[in-house]
Batch of 2 targets.
Target 1
Amino acid sequence: MFQRTLADRLRAAAAAYPIVAVLGPRQSGKTTLVRATFPDKPYVSLENPDLREFASSDPRRFLRDHSDGAILDEVQRAPELLSYLQQVVDDRPQPGLFVLTGSQNLLVLAAVTQSLAGRVSLNTLLPLAVEELAGLDDPHPELEELLFAGFYPRIWDRELDPTDWIRNYVETYVERDVRQIQNVGDLTTFARFVRHCAARSGQALNLSSLGNDCGISHNTAKSWLSILEASYVVHLVGPFHRNLGKRLRRTPKLYFYDTGLVCYLLGLRRADELRSHANRGAVFETFVLGEILKRRVHRGLNRELWFWQDQAGNEVDCLWEVGTRTVAMEVKSGATVASDYFKNLRYWQTLSGASVDDLFVVYAGTDRQRRSEGTVVPWRQLDLLPL
């Protein structure tokens, strides 16, 4: 079993709040994490039809049966339970009484914020970060193997074939989870929409173009994208919010949370196919931004990332704030540092006045290099980046 960074935060939250909630995509390891972190708590899966029917039809009796607290897994399956939880924890405001998990961000968040405001600690568990793979028998897989397999724990824990596992994951997601979020009538077209999104991971989001390629309207594309966001398949990185005297692009960029899912949807069936694939650079960028996001989210830090691009095409791949500082990072999929790797960061520094200590290039090579223009960070040492 992997040691998850979020575990320490959950223990601290359980000492301060009566309810601890862990949200995240299916198969990110939520159940394993909460059961390992709170081993003395009874476990109730609301995926079980009998238990779900009991919780939904007679919530007061259901909660009386768990008056000493419990882990309630996949709570979005019985959202009406949350209103009754409010009264239970108000009557008995004991820290760490209930632990909830949920796989649908918008549905659970809406119910939690309405019913349990001030009573719950909200936490997000994303798929494995590279730093959490230390428990592997071989903790140093090759880059292409890592990107191809992705970061869902079960693939690595059980040494499963990534293609087979992700195929089943996608089919289950499209056939079941999507219907729980929204009534999508044409699942075949929705599946095609997801594939087109994967081909655009790391690119500026153009809903009209995306919709046209899938044969759907702009509004349908927008609605379907919200489904992918709600179920933790994709996330958006917005443009940097400060003008700096330049005309800036305002369109967000689209990223998948998991590179294995991207590779599968792109049609890759072997890790070595990624070496020469046209989307290799975008997949690598998806990986790097995903790692930064995981490390920040699992530590309870602000999850907001940005990119910067002006109308002339000058661009910085990723920016985030550390205290009062703004860290700027370029992502390069080459394994050898080239002379132009710092070009955009030099331009950014001229405009923003950023310190050289806050300028980074992440690349697919192996050597860390401290240069006068910034720091070159190999992909295996992303822990060197400030959070």
Note: DSSP finds 15 helices and 14 strands in the chain.
Target 2
Amino acid sequence: MQRVSHRAIADQLKRKLGASRDGRLAARLGWNAQQLSGWVKKSATPLTVANLVVRASAQAQVTAIVPIVEFHDIRAVDSLRGAYQEVFDTSSTASRYAQGLRARLKEAKGIYVFYDSRGRALYVGKTQRGNANLWAEIKNAFNRDRDEIQGVLRVQHPKRNQAFDSEVKRKPTRVPVKLHELARYMSVYEVAPPLIGSLEALLIRGFANDLLNKRMESFGGRD
């Protein structure tokens, strides 16, 4: 019987699970880096493969939903070229915490929630099909035009240099706004790909009257 190296199995698992490095795979399997390092040096047997399947199955229930960041402050800033708004500063002078969070979001898939200044949920989103990551999806939603359902009442006041006239009555009108004008906090969760669609549907359907989501998602949807 031809044996396969554990290293080859680990590399395939990283691809299938979306784990970019050994440390991420070790966490998904409930090991530390040292345990995984020792395991990949061996060759597979029917018993070791069976043990791995049992371990992965049990650990999948523990790591199916992992918080990345919760109620993180949103400080919208212009992107490098001013084309859109970033959720937080990602320039070369940004803090190590911000740079680390961005890197983590770029390697993960899952669910994100935007909240207003009172901590009430505004919008729930997910990573879409293909190679999309949480960082890309969050930026997209943060800057997306949603004129038909995302608006607030405001008064259009003069911007040119003119005297104030209290006799002029300016009527409040509904104007479209983007999420970056409303959102104050965000929470982001890494989610096992088979669960992403159903988890998003659960959140949207459970809080449908509070969210700006237009589409009512269905359970059992595929990411």
Note: The CA atoms of residues 113 and 124 lie 5 Å apart.
